[in-house]
Structure formats: C-alpha cells, structure tokens
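Deliverable D4.2, example record:
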Amino acid sequence: MAKSLLNNKIKSKFNIYSVNSSNLIKPINVKNNKSQIKFDSVFLLVKPNVFNQKGYSFIKYIDKKTKVISCMAGVKVVTISRKLKTNNVVRIMPNILSLYESSHTCIFSDDKKLANWTKINITNLFGTSFILDKENDIHKATALFGSGPAFIAKIINSYIKASKKMNLKYSDSNEPILNLFKNVLEHSKKYENLDNFIKKITSKKGTTQEGINYLEDANIEKIMYNTFNKAYKRSKELSLEK
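Output generated by the structure prediction step:
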C-alpha cells in the first residue's frame, strides 16, 4: 500500500521520508539527506499487530502539531491516540488505485477540522474522497473500496478464464475481453443505468436471457454481498485483535 500512495501529486506537494522496522529514516523525494526528527504528518502503514506491539516507537517522530494519518485496517482512533499520546489522529482507507489518482478514499476523525484538512490536502490527491460520520463505517468502506479493486479483478479474471474454456480463438491476448468490460462501463451510461442496458440486449427466450437467468438463479448479487460481508467482518475482527 505504501508505494501506491506515492503518486506524482503527493510527491510534488510534500517532502517524504520512510521509516523502516529498524527506525532508519530514508528520504523518498528529498535531495538533502539530513533527516528531520519531527514531522508535520506521519502515515501509519504497518500491519495492525505490528502497531499493537511496536506502535509506541512512532512517538519520537511526532509533536503536538503532527497529524497522524492511519491506513491500518481495524485499529481505532482511540487506540492510536492512546498509543501515540496525541489527539491529532485521522483514519483513511485508500486503495491501490491511489497511485493512478483513481482511488475513492474514506476518511474518519473525531476532529472534523482534521478530517476536512485531510480530504483537501491528502486524500483528494489520491482521487476522490468522502468523510464518514461513524468510525464503524470504515469497516464497510474497507470491504467496498479498499478491497474492491481485487474483487473486481477476480471477477474479470474469472470471465477471461471461463471464456478460454469455450475454445474460441478470438485473440492472442486478453485485450478483447478487457475492452469488453471497458466498453460496457463507458457506453452503458447512455442507457441511464445498467438494468436498462441489460434489457436492450436481452430478448424473451433468447441466448442472452438464458445466461442472465442462470446468473439470477445462482444469485450472483448474494454472492457479491457475502463477499463484502466476509471482508467487513474480518476488518471488525482486526479491530479486536491484540
């Protein structure tokens, strides 16, 4: 995730350093190798269990004005605040598309001014963003938007693999199938919504309707909901782990 956040916009706006497990400070986009001790903002990009065990080590890098921005799944604001002895804590949940300025990132903080500052100065550099009213909703956003790119990629990849089992030589690459997904998303907008788009393609007792009937009988919507719910519950479990 850390590398995904280092897009061109954020590198042009901030001087960025990384800190490894040995507390070695390394400049990312700074020519001067003289490392500062305190930072204006500190991103928490470690696994929750690592933070629970060693999170106190971040204290040396923050002062009263430092904004602590957590990308950890499941670790609550109050837990971070107690561990680091600061109230300037905000949680965000970007995804891998941040690198391409295409993430839809959620934000939560008990401090609304800090949440707004984060949206304007940080998460909007990753794409689009929105502020949550309830911290518990981060679990839902994690499932939908944090994990979402992987779920969508899995669906597309399954389509590709299944298409190859049809033994139709349509190309030497996967590009025609990938373009099919892109074109459906682009041109279905002309029909107001996806349901209308589907209706334009299907005909009673036709081939498309036969396939649609199978997907509906298999309850693909329930499968997707259960996928989100599994990820949501795991995010909540992480918040309880020590």
